[in-house]
Amino acid sequence: MSIKEEIRQNLVKRLKSGQQTFEGMIGYEDSVIPETERALLSRHNILFLGLRGQAKTRMARQMVHLLDEYIPVVAGSEVNDDPLQPVSTYAQNLILQKGDDTPVEWLKREARYGEKLATPDVSVADLIGDIDPIKAANQRLSFSHEEAIHYGMIPRCNRCIFVINELPDLQAPIQVALFNILEEGDVQIRGFKIRLPLDVMFVFTANPEDYTNRGSIVTPLKDRIQSQILTHYPKTIDQALQITEQEAQITPEQSSKVEVSDVVKRLIEQIAFEARTSEYVDKKSGVSARMSIAAYENLVSTAERRCILFKEPSTQAWISDLAGAIPAITGKIELVYEGEQEGPYQVAVHLLDKSIRTIYGQYFPAPEKTRKKRSTKTDAPVQHAPYQPILNWFENGNSIDLYVDMKDQARIQALYKVDGLYAYVTKYFKNADEWQRALLMELVLYGLAAHSLISKRIIERKTKFEDIMNGMMDQLDKLSQGDPEDE
């Protein structure tokens, strides 16, 4: 029985029993997973096509669970020969000599998986094999003799799943060398044609951007890959939250010390959604889910570090702690020309502001709907916005500084100094406890700044909130004095 038939039969059993085929693939339940199952039932080789960080390789690796737990192989065979259907000369000769006494080994399913990252330096010898002159000389074999071959990765994955990641990065001549393996099972090494009916389940992964930038998949090879399956990013924030929760490497110690509220988690995920539509980010390259995972880990570590420095038993992640996640953002986004002009750091700050602006509207009324209106008779502004007392406090020349490293109680006390802030949050969240309320108060400040109603400036290790006009005048004074503190 071929490996594709083996996978098909095991998949049928799983489907009949209602057992999950691919575990942990959040968001793929109604798209990628059903398409993959159909391809496997059809005994197809598969190409997963999608942007970075869309779990293409993980999908391939989970196919191992559809293999039999053990299979017999001829002992000493380099190509995992089936004792009943040997394909190599070595196994055939050994069976002729020993018959029923031929030594057999049992190969576990986890060992039946091979993977190769395609790079421009990959050669035919790496994948298929080459003549081994030393072996030929020692055994007095002709170079055309099959036993003079040193097998490459694909023959050694006979009766296995073999994955080639980033297929377009393979040079065209190397891709051409795969033609016969996919269809006829012939292998040509240095002009010698060897009939080697390999039994391999091929899975390829590729990024659509590769078709125009680094390389392409040659047309005849695409024609031999029967199923092309398109992957995608999480379609909702809730799906993204589940993925990050599943993948983030948070230690039990961190979990016991740092509490992360739902609003902060959503802010982290929203950054990725904003990046995927940003005019500064190259949409063709995509924004990996790994960005949100790394940003979340950095956020927790930022809060944990503060907790350790101030010898506090526990803490919560504040909005200000998102500044600690910026290094996880800058290294995981490809910028277009406009983004390069802004710089990675400023683009990350811009994405964070847009994320806050979006999430703020899910917890409080969007400021656009409560802006000052003018009276039709007197043309005087009507003070009706619920956050107007907060703005008045800043307009009176007051400001608030929130430091990166700041004791929790000091932060809470600073937030309570802003007139109208406590009342504004309590109006919409009457049942919030002290910590939740303080976090929402901080969100209001960041939200009003994101909507350009107050000024927010990052100065060294603190974020300063003040009136828009005062902030502009201070910045002008700093610039005129050549002060480099402001960022």
How would you describe this protein?
- With 487 residues, this protein is an alpha/beta fold.
- It folds into 3 domains: 184 residues, P-loop containing nucleotide triphosphate hydrolases (Rossmann fold); 127 residues, Magnesium chelatase subunit I, C-Terminal domain (Helicase, Ruva Protein, domain 3); 113 residues, no CATH class.
- Helix content is 43%, strand content 15%.
- The protein has 22 helices and 18 strands.
- Strands 4-7-10-1-11 form a 5-stranded parallel β-sheet. A 3-stranded antiparallel β-sheet has the order 16-18-17. The chain has a two-stranded antiparallel ribbon with strand order 2-3.
- Helix 11 packs across helix 13, helix 13 crosses helix 14 and helix 20 crosses helix 21.
- The longest helix has 21 residues.
- 34% of the residues are buried.
- The mean pLDDT is 86.
Note the topology.
Blueprint: H1 3-17, H2 32-41, E1 46-49, H3 56-62, E2 70-74, H4 89-98, E3 104-108, E4 113-117, H5 124-127, E5 129-131, H6 133-138, E6 149-151, H7 153-156, E7 160-165, H8 172-176, H9 179-183, E8 186-189, E9 192-195, E10 200-206, H10 219-224, E11 227-230, H11 237-247, H12 252-257, E12 258-259, H13 262-275, H14 289-309, E13 315-316, H15 326-330, H16 337-342, H17 344-363, E14 373-374, E15 381-382, H18 388-395, E16 400-403, H19 408-416, H20 421-428, H21 434-450, E17 455-459, E18 462-466, H22 468-481
Helix pairs in contact: 11-13, 11-14, 13-14, 13-17, 17-21, 20-21
